[in-house]
Amino acid sequence: MTPPGNAWNELSLSEDPAVALLQKLGFRYVAPEILEAERESVKVPLLPSRLAKALKKLNPWLSDDNLHKAVRSVGAVQSATLIEASEEVYETLVHTRSFEQDLGDGRKSHDVRFFDFDNPTNNELLVTRQYAVKGAKKTIYPDIVVFINGIPLAVIECKSPKLGEAWKLEAIDQFSRYQELDDKYRELGAPRLFETVQVLIATCRQAAVYGTVTTPYRFFAEWKTTWPMTPEKLRALVGREPTAQDVTLAGLLAPQNLLDLVRNFVAFDPDRDTGRVVRKLCRYQQFTAVNKAIERARTAKKPDDRGGVVWHTQGSGKSLTMLWLALKLRRDPLHENPTLVLVTDRKDLDAQITGTFQACKFPNPERAESVRHLRELLSGPPGKTVLTTVQKFQELAATGGSSGKRAARKEHPVLSEAHNLFVLTDEAHRTQYGGLAANMRKALPNAAFFGFTGTPIDKKDRSTLSTFGPYIDTYTIEQAVADGATVPIFYEGRLPALRIIGNTLDALFDRVFADRSDEEREAIKKRYANEQTLAGAPKRVETICLDLLDHYAKAIQPGGFKAQVVACTRENAVLYKETLDRLHGPQSAIIISGSNKDATHLVKHHTSEEQRTALIDRFLAKDDPLKILVVCDMLLTGFDAPIEQVMYLDSPLKEHTLLQAIARVNRTADGKSYGLVIDYWGVSEALTEALEIFAPSEVKGAMTPKSDELPRLQARHAAAVRFFVRVKDKDDLDACVAVLEPEDVRAEFDAAFKRFSQSLDMLLPDPSALPYVADARWLGKIRQAAAAKFRDKKIDIADCGAKVRKLIEEAVAADGIEILVKPISLFAPELEEKLKKLKTPEARASEMEHAIRDEIHVRLDDDPVFFTSLRERLEQIIEDRKAKRIDAARELQRLEDEIRKKIRARAETAATLGLSETGLAIYGLISERKPLTAAEKTGNAYGKVDESKKELASLLEEQLEPQVSLVDWVHKDDVQREMRKRIKRQLRAAGFADDKLDATADSIVDLMKRRRGR
C-alpha cells in the first residue's frame, strides 16, 4: 500500500491523475468496497457476476451450466506455476474455449467469446484502486487495477516522484512480491491476481515503464507513443502538457489498444538458456509497425501499394515483429484466410524464424524443405504459412518439370495469382537479393510484399524501396539505445602499426617481413603482396593475439562476458584459433564453412551442423568455459548472443555487412552496459567513408569512438562528488554518510554513482580513466556504508561493473573499514565494535536507530502486538531527539534500555509468563492494547498480565498443534478452515464479541503460518 510518508505525493501527483485519465479513455471508476461486496472472497480476483453478464451478452446462446464453466475456466485455473496459469488463461481469453451445447442442430462444440475485440465499447470497462486480493498469507492492495468484462487485465503501481530514480526499483520490486517471483517473497503476495493480468505499469508521473507477468526488472521498458491517438488529442484530453505517465497509459490502456495488445501482441517463448517459458509483450515500435502495415494493406488504393519496408535496427525484436504481423494478417477478415510467405536469405535465419514461430505456437507454419516442396505449398489451397529461403525462387527459374531435370526457362513460373497473399521478406536489400525480388514477384504477381531489415537502406539501394514500397516504420540505432532495447557500441582501434587499411601495403609489408632478406622479401612481395596474405602473416597474427588476450583478460572477462574474433579468410581464422591455443588463451572454438576441396589444415576444423549448434549453445551459456568464437563469414548476421560483449575485428567489412556484424555486441544482458568493437584492420579509420552511403540520421550512434566516453566520465564524476561538496573533512565517513540520510537524496546519489561507475568500468584499464579511480573508491565506500547504515536493500555493490566492484572491495579491505560498510543485525556481536568505531554520538545513535528499525521490520509478523508497540516507542524517541528534548547520547541510552533490551529479553518474558514465544505472540493478538504506564515500560511490553488471556493463548496454541504439524499445511485450505473453526470456538467460549471472531482467527492463522509454516 501507499507508504505513509509519501502518501500525499504518490496519491495526488500520480495515482489521482492516472485514474482521471483512464476515466477519460472510457473506463468507469467503481470504488473497491463496491466490487468487494460482489466477490465471494477477497481471494478471488475475478468479478464473477460481471464476467457472467458480459459472457451472456457476447454469447447469448450459453446455457447456465456452460456459463458457469466459462467463468471457472478463467477464475479457477489449476497450474503448478504462475507462468503456466498465465499461458492457460491467455489461450482461453484469446483463442477462445469451446463448450458442447445443443443449439437446435444437435450437441456440438461452440466457441465462447470473452471480449468483443472488434468493438471495445461493447465491453464493460472498469477501473478501481486499492483493490484487495488475499494470497496465502498476505492481502495485497495494488494502487490501480483495470478490468474488462470483470477480468483484471492491467495493474498499475504509482510512486512518489520524490523517490528519485529509486521509484522504479521500488515499484517493480512490489510487482515481484505481489507475484511471489522469488523465494524471499513466498506467501507474501497474491499470484492469482496475475493469472489474467496482461500489462504491468510502474509510474511516478514524470516517468513510467511497463512489463507483463513475470517480467524481470531489466526488461521493463518505456512506451513512447499514443498511436493511433495523436499527441495533440492527448494534450486536449488531459488539458495540459502530457507527462510520461499520460503517454504510457494512453498508449497501452486505451481500450482499443489494450484489446489489440492482448489479442495480437503476446508471445510465450522458451528461454534459450533456461528452457523456461517467458511471456513477452511487444515494444511500442513493434506495435506501431505492425498496425501501420495492416493499415496500409487494408487501405492502399492500388494493390501494388499495399507493401513497404520496416526498418527496425538489429537487436530490437525483428523476428517477433514479423510474427505479430503475420498473426494479425491471418486474423484480418478482410483478407479471407490469406497465405503468408516468410522469406529469408540464409538457412540459419530461416531456421531461426521457423523456430520463433513454432515456439510461439503460431498456427501450422510450414518450412519449405526443397524447391519442389515450395512449389507444392504455394500452388495448393490458400491459408498456409510458408517459410522459405529466397534462393529457392532463384532455383525455381532453372528447374523444369516434376522430374527436376535442368532446362532453360526464360520466365519464372507463376505459382499463385491469389490477391490475399502476403510476402514478409527478412533483410530486404538489393545487395542481398539482387534479381530474386523480381523472381518472387513473377511467381506471386498479386502478392503484397513487406520488407524487413535491421540496417538502413543505403543511398545506392533505393531500389529496395521501389521494390517493396516506401518505409512503413523506422526505428533507428539511436532510438534503440535510448530505449534500452540495445546497448551502445563503442569502437577502439588498436595496434596501428599492424593495420591493413590506413597504411600503405609497402610500409606494412616491410614491418611484417623485417626479418627476411631483401631477395626473400622481393619474391614474397611479387607473389603475395595483397591484403589477405599480409593479414595472415603469422608474426602479425601472433602480435594481435597477444594484445587481444591481454585486453580480454583485463577489460571483458572480469564481467563474465565473451568474445568473437572475425578474420578476413578461413585460412586466417584457422591461424587465429591455433595461435590462441598456442598462447594458452581461454577456451575457444572456430566456426567456418567447409568445402570438399579444402586443404588438410582446414578440413580438421570442419564441423557438422549439429556440432556447430552445440558450440553455439555452449558459447551462449554464461558459465560454460568456451569464451571465444573465431569466425570468418559465419555468425556475422542473425546471430543473437547477449553474452558477447566484444568483437575483435580483423576483416575489411563495410556498409551493410559492417553494420550487421558489429550488432552482434549490441544485445542487452545483466551487467552489460555497452558493446565493444576492437579494430585491428583499420575499419574504424574508414568508418566515416563506410557509412557515408547512409543518411546521417539513420546511422547516428552506430559506433562511437571509445575516446568519446572520457568527457562523459568527467561529467558523471562531477555529478557524483558534488553531493559531498559541503563536507569539510572528506575522510570523515560518518559525515559523508549523514548527507545521504534523506531517502530522496540517497536515491539521487545512487543513480549518479551508477552512471559514474558505468563510464569508469567501460574505460578501465585505459590510462585515461586512472585519475578517477581514487574517487571511485571513496564514493564506493560511502555508498556501501550508507547501504549498511540505512539498511537500504536497493543499494548493492553487485550492480557495479566488475572492475569498479573490485576497486571498491580492495579499498574497503585496505582501509580496514569492513565493519563500517557491512549491515550488522541488532544482536550481532560486531554491532558493539561498529558503534565504537563511529566517531560521534549522533552517528552511534543513528546506527542503533536503523538497526532497531530493521529488526522490527523483519520480525513484525512474528509478534505484531509486541513489535508494533516497540515501533511506536522508537518513533517517540526519535521525535524527542528531533525536538531537542534529548541529545544524541540520551537517545542512544533510551534506544538501548527501552527497545533493544526488551527485544533481547522477549524469550525471557515468555518464560516468565509460562508461555512459548508463539504463545506469547497469540497472547498479544487476543489482548486489548492499552497505552503503557511509565512503570510498565520498565517491565514487559504487554503491560499487566491478564491471567485468563494467558491461559487462552496457551490453550489455542495447544489446540492448533495437530494442524501445524501436518506436512505442507500452509497450502491446504481445508486444514486452515479447521484451524479457524477451532480458534473461533475457543474465542466464543471466552466471551469474544462475534464481530471480532473472524478477524482475530485470521490474524492467529497468519501468525502460525509465519512462525510454524516452514
Question: How would you portray this structure in words?
Answer:
With 1014 residues, this protein is α/β, with parallel strands linked by helices. It has 4 domains: 4-54 and 124-270, tt1808, chain A (Alpha-Beta Complex); 283-475, Rossmann fold (3-Layer(aba) Sandwich), CATH 3.40.50.300; 490-702, P-loop containing nucleotide triphosphate hydrolases (Rossmann fold, 3-Layer(aba) Sandwich); 710-821. Helices cover 48% and strands 12% of the residues. The model is unreliable at 1-7, 399-408 and 934-939 (pLDDT under 50).
Rounded radius of gyration (Å): 33 Å
Strand order of the largest sheet: 15-16-14-17-18-13-19
CATH level 4 superfamily of the largest domain: P-loop containing nucleotide triphosphate hydrolases
Terminal Cα span:
26 Å
From the spread of the alpha carbons, the general shape counts as: globular
InterPro entries: Helicase_ATP-bd, HsdR_RecA-like_helicase_dom_2, P-loop_NTPase, Restrct_endonuc_type1_HsdR_N, Restrct_endonuc_typeI_HsdR, SWI2_SNF2, T1RH-like_C, Type-I_R_enzyme_R_subunit
Organism: Sorangium atrum
EC number: 3.1.21.3
Family: Belongs to the HsdR family.
How do the strands and helices of this protein lay out in sequence?
Elements: H1 7-24, E1 28-29, H2 32-38, H3 48-58, H4 64-75, H5 82-95, E2 97-102, E3 107-112, E4 125-129, E5 133-134, E6 139-140, E7 144-148, E8 151-158, H6 166-179, E9 199-203, E10 208-211, H7 231-238, H8 244-253, H9 255-264, E11 266-270, E12 277-281, H10 284-299, E13 308-312, H11 318-331, E14 339-344, H12 347-359, E15 365-367, H13 371-379, E16 385-389, H14 391-396, E17 421-426, H15 430-433, H16 436-443, E18 448-453, H17 463-468, E19 471-475, H18 477-483, E20 489-493, H19 505-512, H20 518-528, H21 531-535, H22 538-556, E21 562-567, H23 570-582, E22 588-591, H24 600-603, H25 609-620, E23 628-631, E24 644-650, H26 655-662, E25 675-679, H27 687-691, H28 696-699, E26 704-705, H29 709-721, H30 733-739, H31 743-763, H32 773-789, H33 802-815, H34 830-837, H35 841-859, H36 864-882, H37 888-904, H38 906-913, H39 917-926, H40 934-937, H41 947-964, H42 973-989, H43 994-1012
Helix pairs in contact: 1-8, 3-4, 10-11, 22-23, 29-31, 30-32, 31-32, 32-33, 35-36, 35-37, 36-37, 39-41, 39-43, 41-42, 42-43
